[in-house]
Design brief:
Blueprint (H helix, E strand, L loop, with lengths): L1 H20 L6 H9 L4 H22 L2 E14 L3 E13 L7 E14 L2 E9 L1
Helix pairs in contact: 2-3
C-alpha cells in the first residue's frame, strides 16, 4: 500500500505540475480552471487568483505560451494520505516580444493530500 501511494502521488505531482505551469495565451483561462481541479482549498484559491489576476492578463497581452516537461521526479516522503515530491522541470517560453524559445530549468517541491481517492496538490514551492 505504501509503495502504491508513493507511485500514485509521484504521477499525480508530475501531471498536476505540468497542468499548473503550462499554458498558452489563447487558452490560459480554461487551462487555469482545469488545473485548479487538481488542487486543494486555500492553495487552489491562491493559484486561481494568481493566474487570473496576474499571469493570464500578461500572457494575453504579450502572447506568452509556456510548455513544461518533467525531466525527473522523486518522492521525498509518503503515507496513505500525504506525500511530498521533488520535480525537476524544463520550461520553454515564447512570446510576441521573444518569439524564439527560451528554455529554463527549475526544481519544485510538490505537497499532496489524498482526498476522496484522488491525490491533490496542496502546495507547490520553487526551490
Amino acid at each position: 500500500a505504501a509503495e502504491t501511494a508513493r507511485t500514485d502521488a509521484r504521477v499525480a505531482a508530475e501531471e498536476q505540475a505540468v497542468a499548473m505551469l503550462a499554458y498558452t495565451h489563447d487558452q490560459v483561462d480554461a487551462q487555469t480552471d482545469a488545473a485548479a481541479e487538481g488542487l486543494t482549498g486555500d492553495f487552489r484559491d491562491e493559484y486561481t487568483n494568481l493566474m487570473k489576476n496576474i499571469i493570464a492578463p500578461g500572457a494575453k497581452e504579450k502572447a506568452i505560451s509556456v510548455q513544461v516537461s518533467v525531466q525527473a521526479s522523486s518522492v521525498v516522503s509518503a503515507d496513505a494520505d500525504n506525500a511530498v515530491t521533488l520535480l525537476f522541470l524544463n520550461q520553454i517560453t515564447r512570446s510576441s516580444e521573444n518569439p524564439e524559445a527560451v528554455s529554463s530549468g527549475s526544481r519544485v517541491r510538490v505537497e499532496l493530500e489524498k482526498q476522496d481517492g484522488r491525490w491533490l496538490v496542496s502546495r507547490l514551492t520553487p526551490i
